[in-house]
Amino acid sequence: MESEGSDGVTILHVDDDPALGGLVKTFLEREASGLECRVLSETSPVDALERLDDGEGIDCVISDYRMPGMNGIEFLETVREDHPELPVLLFSGEETNAVAAEIIHAGLTDYLRKGMGTDQYTMLIRRVGHAVDSDGRFDPAAETELDGVGVVGSDEFFERADETYASCYGYAPDDVAGKHWTELHPEWEVEHIRTHVLPVVREQGTWSGRSEGLRSDGSTFVESKLVSALDDGRLMIAVSELDESHVENAA
Fold it and tell me: PROSITE patterns given for it (predicted)?
């Protein structure tokens, strides 16, 4: 059995395609990646769960979505039962819109869609590096669940929003689709997002915290928010409204 270096990171990669597993191992373990890691590969999510319990000191998990017997979200939910803060990334060919709500509710650390060529592995290296430096979850300290999910296109206009997301701002989902994201925030918050939130998302892949939303009737509210960069230039946003007790306790 390989032993982890004192400064190294142990990554467990789960994908039913052994050829892809070999490529991920090659790209992440090479010296040029800068990760100083070793990659353990499994083609079965069940075997991967057993390996997590073998005491090998795994620091991060990368998982596919479509796998025999258990999909990536089901795998993540099982991991979270015993390892609530272990960074888990989904590296999958699945269309993000189809799994966006599941990603948020299950507590995924990050998502990267598989692509063509070597750029996808370069991006994966960056995402893994950020994940192992984080606390393993999108927003583990949040006192409320991030229930509503919306997706903003690379043109900064909403492509879709679920009912919960839209209702936070006083709209129906169809009314949010096509709006520019700035229409859902007061002017002073738009400036803050442009100067403080988006640069963090571009550099690190995700941002979580509190911001101020603007409802359709002109009123404002405090929201708990996660903004995550997707690999195709879009943004996935999860949000929930904070009630007055949460806001006062944080003051």
Answer: RESPONSE_REGULATORY (PS50110)
Each residue's pLDDT tens digit, 199-233: 888 887 888 888 899 999 999 999 988 898 887 78
Domain assignment present for residue 4? The answer is no
Residue 216 in contact with residue 171, Cβ under 8 Å?
A: yes
pTM: 0.60
Q: Do 235 and 152 contact (CB within 8 A), yes or no?
A: yes
Q: Where do the DSSP E strands lie in 65-169?
A: 88-92, 110-113, 148-152, 158-161
Q: Give the pLDDT of residue 134.
A: 58
Distance CA 16, CA 100 (A): 22
**Which residues constitute the domain of residue 197?**
148-250
Are residue 117 and residue 163 in the same domain, yes or no?
no
* Cβ–Cβ < 8 Å for 100, 236: yes
The β-bridge relationship of strands 110-113 and 88-92 is: parallel
Q: Coil, strand, or helix at residue 146?
A: coil
Nearest to 29 by CA among 41, 44, 18: 41
Task: For the beta carbon of residue 143, count every other beta carbon within 10 angstroms.
Answer: 13
Specify the 3-state DSSP secondary structure of 190.
Answer: helix
Contact 130, 112 (CB under 8 A): no
- Structure-block tokens of residue 26: 């090659």
* Gap between the Cα atoms of 243 and 251, Å rounded: 13
Q: What is the dihedral of CA 156, 210, 169, 248, to 10 degrees?
A: -170
End-of-domain residue from the set 98, 133, 168: 133
